Amino acid sequence: VIDPVSPLILPMSMDDLDAVHAVAVASFTSPWARDVFAEELRREWAVIRVLRADPKEPVCAFVNFWIVRDEVHVLNLATHPVWRRRGYARMLLDDTLSFARTRGVRYVTLEVRRSNAPAIALYRSLGFVAIGVRPSYYADDNEDAIVMLLTIEPGGARTRAWHLAGE
Ligand SMILES: CC(C)(COP(=O)(O)OP(=O)(O)OC[C@H]1O[C@@H](n2cnc3c(N)ncnc32)[C@H](O)[C@@H]1OP(=O)(O)O)[C@@H](O)C(=O)NCCC(=O)NCCS
After folding, report:
1. Residue with CA closest to ligand 1 atom 35
2. How crowded is residue 166: how many other Cβ atoms within 10 Å of its Cβ?
3. 159 in Cβ contact with 153 (< 8 Å)
4. Annotated catalytic residue: which of 111, 137, 138, 143?
């Protein structure tokens, strides 16, 4: 019998810089430079958490968010292509939502490319709803961003908020 090892989610450290940057390069058309992640680690309001399939593996996925008053804003979420469809991005978002609840956060927001069906499916499955569009938001190719929101009720429940017209 194989003993299943649970994935491990921990705060990113400077030692993880190369690994996190590698996941970003493999995942985004215009990934952040390595230094931007280093800057992010120094920001008091920024959090980056990394997931390893087991403690011996390199970083498989990461999430990066900002805490601004009663809002968590997700800036980056990526799973290295080799490790996709194993539930890792969902685990990182669940972890982010637990964090948000313990901090009394009310709103979790993010922007996602209109064409990014996998990410939109993931966000919807967690209760995020589309609340708006930022036209030509992405400078590299002018793609629109869909703005998504998840409202956390004070009791901890997640509810659906507004719906974008036509959805
Ligand atoms: C989007 C992304 C983070 C998903 O990572 P992942 O670890 O593979 O996601 P999970 O295994 O946790 O999948 C959770 C759910 O997302 C959805 N999903 C993920 N990949 C999908 C795909 N290729 N097609 C359709 N739905 C998909 C599904 O609803 C899935 O649930 P299911 O497996 O039970 O059907 C990953 O594809 C990625 O890094 N993409 C490039 C970067 C990016 O677009 N980031 C998000 C925008 S900031």
Report:
1. 85
2. 5
3. yes
4. 111
Query: CB burial class (10 A; 0-12, 13-18, 19+) of residue 65?
Result: buried
0.70 cut: is pTM over it? yes
The pLDDT tens digits for 29-55 are 999 999 999 999 999 999 999 999 998
For 124-163, what is each residue's pLDDT tens digit? 999 999 999 999 999 999 999 999 999 998 765 555 444 4
Active site residue 123: yes
Q: Quick one: how far is CA 99 from the chain centroid?
A: 13
Helix 34-42 and helix 17-27: axis angle, to 10°? 120
**Spatial distance between the Cα atoms of 151 and 149, rounded to a whole number of angstroms:** 6
Record the tokens describing residue 36, joined without a space.
């931007």
Closest approach atom of ligand 1 to CA 23 = 39
Q: Which residues contact 152 (CB under 8 A, 6 or more apart)?
A: 97, 100, 101, 105, 106, 107, 108, 158
